[in-house]
């Protein structure tokens, strides 16, 4: 198992990729951060000892910010804060997203301005390494003062409330803690607030979606190349010269991927002098369409990568200046906007993929047997697969409505503008699920179309994509129950196996 050493400043998407791929990590904390954590905690202890009125340390929260709390009640204040905020609803978050949220919350505390004890930081590391994973409901955050409700569920589980799993077995949190070898967490002044004020839930979901989207983007290029082969399209629109004239990096990367997948194709050579003047946009504009998604992914990745090492709680206890800042670093607007951007960008991949599916199954367009069955009429072939692709593309348009433009004031109008960042993250994940399913439909159709031109060798990448699918989906010789085929094709894409097979044949594809 790989060890990930956290220092609060250098965490990257690549560091978290093993969790997205279904692997696990062992956490360590860089010793250099410990002095800053102690210094920040010393400031908290000094304010508490002096009886100072400081928001979040010795007062209530939100609208109750002006209510002072006696020193002897500060531990109960933090406990009450966490439990009262456990109001999440809906299905549990995917476990890998919770694991990433655990890392992100810990990494933020290592910046040394959150005022927590070093012992708490070590406890968070140890709980993670023991495989303790809180059950966190997906809904309930407006992304204003951070992801209060879901993060509270995450912390409450460590306190023995709610549900949690240890190595995959879900049970009462108290029982899971005992199995993992931990007593329920006891919070001290400032610590509950430090743990639940943050944007780690929307970030964690965003991390998984961005890494999955990068894979889907590469897979879309390879699948489009297979469709170009099957439809005997032209390779000329993918020349690098055209990308230079367009002056667009996303287009250049997409065109390079498709050219690599089409290299050494006998199919393309066989119709160089055909009577077709132009291919439809869904083929010849692949560099522009897929390339725009790559450009969006690059921007989303840049913003999200910076946020992985951001401080997001409140108030901030800064030893360097000796000040306590009550600011708004927990507000999720920077994330909600890019997560909306991610979702609407991914819709494009499903939209254009569905159009290529139509090109493949429609005999008036494809010059192939109707609906890609050897016996049209008696058999319907892949006729209704196009319906499913259309349904997915249409549903995505609903999910693409931006969450970041909405706001409902909370906490008696103290938190009068909210980001809805977790909603944006959940929508992006749903869109991505649909995109992988839609690309799977195109992969099945493109591979089936190749069955009618197998006498000619396709490009190396297209051949690799075809061969990888054939490991799990047999050619369609007659009508059969198709749902398992489409599910297997989606999994072939989502797991990364398709991209890995293509890259083994042609070299690394560009994200």
Word description of this protein:
The protein is mainly alpha-helical and 511 residues long. It folds into two domains: 2-198, Fumarase C, Chain B, domain 1 (Orthogonal Bundle), CATH 1.10.275.10; 206-506, Up-down Bundle (Fumarase C, Chain A, domain 2). It has helices spanning 13-20, 34-50, 74-84, 95-109, 118-129, 148-158, 173-180, 191-196, 200-230, 240-246, 249-262, 266-270, 281-284, 286-307, 333-361, 363-366, 383-399, 421-450, 460-470, 483-494, 497-506, and strands at residues 2-6, 25-29, 89-92, 132-134, 137-139, 163-166, 169-172, 316-318, 323-325. It is built from 21 helices and nine strands. It has a three-stranded antiparallel β-sheet with strand order 4-6-7. Strands 1-2 form a two-stranded parallel ribbon. The chain has a two-stranded antiparallel sheet with strand order 3-5. 56% of the residues lie in helices and 7% in strands. A hairpin with a 2-residue loop joins strand 6 (163-166) and strand 7. It is elongated and about 85 Å long.
Keywords:
two-stranded parallel ribbon, Fumarase C, Chain B, domain 1, mainly alpha, Fumarase C, Chain A, domain 2, single chain
Set down the secondary structure blueprint.
Blueprint: E1 2-6, H1 13-20, E2 25-29, H2 34-50, H3 74-84, E3 89-92, H4 95-109, H5 118-129, E4 132-134, E5 137-139, H6 148-158, E6 163-166, E7 169-172, H7 173-180, H8 191-196, H9 200-230, H10 240-246, H11 249-262, H12 266-270, H13 281-284, H14 286-307, E8 316-318, E9 323-325, H15 333-361, H16 363-366, H17 383-399, H18 421-450, H19 460-470, H20 483-494, H21 497-506
Parallel strand pairs: 1-2
Antiparallel strand pairs: 3-5, 4-6, 6-7, 8-9
Helix pairs in contact: 1-9, 4-5, 4-9, 9-11, 9-14, 9-15, 9-18, 9-19, 10-11, 11-14, 11-19, 14-15, 15-17, 15-18, 17-18, 18-19, 18-20, 19-21
